[in-house]
Design brief:
heterodimer; A: alpha+beta; B: about 170 residues; globular
């Protein structure tokens, strides 16, 4: 009888955490789904070696949204409004406009944009379906496009995570030393979900052959989602290579202690992985106002924005948003925890 | 442009065939009652005759169906809207039922969009975008030429029009 009871308890002990983890993932997925269905405003702060910027966004629905691009010190650079088929753009900072291209469209469009006025392209809205290749990486290379898909990114990251777990200080696996993020607010009943990273292979035998089996940003991602009243109110992400526990252990024990892991980290740090892995800090804070109506500003002059769009895309790829100096990375960080470090 | 319309109707009728005996006793579909303006975004709206397409179909989840075309002044066809009203055999409020229909539209995996407070699924066909949504016990499929620059405005206008009381 005792043996039977012990077996039952053992089975319960083995399966209970697994069921809980699945339930946490289901709960988070439901909360993300509920959040996507609502009009919202949000601020995204991004800092990486390639680009540092802020985007203030307002989303009425998937066809109507407004984005304001700012530099890391909150200086407005660009306004970008999509309303159904129409796209309206205004350059707020002329030194930023000068860096985009020598011409931003036909002479009228170019003049309007360079004088800080609105231009509307009645059928210039970006495509609704992006190419499959653009969703595999951490970023599409277009900050405006990335900003549009912030909540959808959570779903992608969940698919890439080892598991989703509701944060608890009672969690025996939790290691505060490796966690930069704030604890959930007790007073507001906020819940924090952590997307736990898949482990790194420690030997050749543990690797999966082929490009799709290579390590990627998900292996280094510290991502926590904060939910209040069944809606996502903050997302904090740090793709942390140099703070990875295996990297720290390797540094401590010496590269010769695990030549396989040393080679792996060398590949990661030199960008020699199937999907490049870059240190990256992203914090998104979301609010859900009763109304988030988005309109094309009155008085905007009509013109084609195709040239502007490609100029912006090229300029971003060429580093127009490259951080000029140290970038603030203290938002969402727990008191006493060192803020994420962005390295080139 | 007419092909996806037929495909959607076929889906609903085939689904009924596989769905059990109840659907097999459903009466044949009649012409759908939808009030659309005579012009939308400058496009001429014409109700097309689909009697030939659905003749001989006896098992269906639809009580009525209709097809509308949207043409330029030059008579160039820009878009079509299929309207299907569900009968009491169908269960459009069930996610599984909806998914079964949506998943088979177009050549790409449908992407869910929120337009106003309605879920719209977007997929791509050959040189066309296919928007579909459920509302008022009905199923709507808007197929638009991919080179038409005002797809989303047309979608928004039609969603408003079909929501309005007849």
């Amino acid at each position: 009888m005792r043996l039977r009871l012990a077996i039952v308890l053992l089975v319960l002990a083995v399966f209970a955490p697994a069921c809980k983890a699945n339930q946490d993932a289901r709960d988070l997925r439901n909360d993300v789904g509920a959040s996507v269905n609502q009009s919202r405003t949000y601020r995204i702060r991004v800092a990486s070696a390639d680009a540092a910027y802020i985007i203030d966004a307002k989303v009425e629905d998937d066809l109507r949204y407004g984005l304001e691009l700012l530099d890391p010190n909150e200086r407005p650079l660009l306004d970008y409004v999509v309303r159904d088929d129409a796209l309206a753009v205004r350059i707020r900072d002329q030194s930023f406009g000068a860096k985009l291209a020598t011409s931003l469209g036909d002479p009228v469009v170019d003049k309007q944009l360079r004088s800080g006025r609105w231009v509307v392209d009645p059928s210039g809205a970006p495509p609704l379906i992006q190419g499959a290749t653009q969703v595999t990486g951490e970023t599409s290379g277009n900050p405006l496009q990335d900003a549009r898909g912030t909540l959808q990114f959570i779903a992608t990251a969940m698919d890439q995570a080892r598991t989703v777990r509701r944060f608890s200080l009672d969690d025996i696996e939790y290691r505060s030393k490796l966690d930069p993020w704030r604890y959930p607010s007790d007073s507001s009943g906020e819940i924090r979900y952590d997307l736990l990273r898949p482990g790194l292979p420690h030997s050749e035998a543990a690797t999966i052959r082929g490009a799709s089996g290579d390590v990627g940003p998900a292996n280094f991602r510290k991502l926590s989602i904060f939910v209040s009243k069944r809606r996502v109110d903050e997302m904090c992400e740090y793709v942390d290579i140099l703070g990875h526990e295996d990297y720290l252990a390797l540094q401590q024990r010496g590269l010769k202690s695990n030549p396989f892991l040393a080679t792996l980290f060398h590949r990661v740090l030199t960008g020699d992985t199937a999907v490049p892995i870059r240190t990256r800090y992203v914090v998104v804070t979301i609010e859900y106002p009763d109304s988030a109506a988005v309109d094309v500003p009155a008085g905007a002059s009509a013109g084609k924005l195709t040239t502007f769009n490609s100029a912006l895309q090229r300029a971003v790829a060429a580093g127009v948003l490259h951080p000029a100096g140290p970038v603030p990375t203290s938002e969402c960080v727990r008191k006493g925890s060192p803020p994420p470090t962005i390295t080139a | 442009m007419r092909r996806p319309a037929v495909a959607a109707f076929a889906l609903l009728t085939l689904a009924a065939c596989g769905g059990g005996t109840e659907a097999a006793t459903a009466p044949p579909a009649a012409s759908a009652v939808v009030m659309l303006p005579s012009r939308v975004l400058g496009l001429r709206v014409v109700r097309e005759n689909v009697a030939g397409e659905v003749s001989g179909v006896s098992a269906s989840y639809l009580s009525s169906l209709g097809l509308f075309s949207f043409r330029e002044k030059s008579n160039l066809l820009r878009a079509t809207l299929q309207v299907g009203r569900f009968n009491n055999v169908a269960s459009p409020q069930k996610g599984k039922f909806r998914d079964a229909i949506i998943s088979q539209l177009g050549a790409t995996v449908p992407v869910r969009l929120r337009v106003g407070s309605t879920d719209v699924w977007l997929s791509a066909g050959s040189d066309q975008a296919i928007y579909s949504w459920f509302a008022n016990d009905g199923f709507y499929v808007l197929s638009v030429r991919s080179d038409y620059g005002f797809q989303r405005s047309l979608l928004r206008e039609l969603m408003k029009a079909v929501q309005a009381p007849a």
